[in-house]
Amino acid sequence: MTKKVKVNLNAIVDAFETQNSESVSYINVNNGDVVIVFEDFLISSNSDKVDAMMPECQKQEIIQPQDIESGDDWVELPSQFEINEYQIMRAFANSRIDTNENQKLQAALTGSKAFRRFKDTALDIGVIDEWYKFKTEAFTEIARTWCEDNGFDIAEDDV
């Protein structure tokens, strides 16, 4: 039996927190490193964007994503859409015992700009710290389940 790679659960949660529609997060199956790759850097090595005039640090940022996408050493972490923060916000609102808080948070989740409105409402009613704790716990559970499902061990510091 092959030894499972140990991963830092907090690094995965941080990747979840940082993700947006223009980035993808990966984990290295050999060493457990977590990286976030931004869409702007996902270009072909044959692209005319990679030329002699480009600073070396930018070339390296472009080459690494290419290695990630073309190799077998990297596994994509769940995307922001798979994580579904909207559902986590709804669960937080439903967890509020205070009916007034529950109703205000639920109302904030309707219509456009629901994410911003939800956070503003959580701040206004004084539960923003509880929201961030709830979200981090939800992200941690998603990361833990993902690691188990994909054969990664969690570093003991994170247990």
3D structure, described in words:
The chain has helices at about 10-20, 55-70, 80-85, 85-95, 100-110, 115-125, 130-150; strands at about 5, 25-30, 35-40, 75, 155. The mean pLDDT is about 85. Strand 2 (about 25-30) and strand 3 (about 35-40) form a beta hairpin. The chain has about 160 residues and is mainly alpha-helical. Helix 4 (about 85-95) packs antiparallel against helix 5, helix 4 crosses helix 7 (about 130-150) and helix 5 (about 100-110) runs antiparallel to helix 6. It has two domains: about 5-80 and about 150-159, no CATH class; about 80-135, no CATH class. The protein is about 50% helix and about 10% strand.
Tag the structure with descriptive keywords.
159 residues, two-stranded parallel sheet, mainly alpha, three-stranded antiparallel sheet, single chain, elongated, 2 domains
Low-confidence stretches: none
CA gyration radius, whole angstroms: 19 Å
Strand order of the largest sheet: 3-2-4
Structural domains: how many:
2
Which sheet architecture does the biggest sheet show?
A: 3 strands, antiparallel
Could you give the topology of this structure?
Elements: E1 6-7, H1 9-18, E2 23-28, E3 34-38, H2 56-70, E4 74-76, H3 80-83, H4 85-95, H5 99-108, H6 114-124, H7 128-149, E5 153-154
Parallel strand pairs: 1-5
Antiparallel strand pairs: 2-3, 2-4
Helix pairs in contact: 1-7, 4-5, 4-7, 5-6
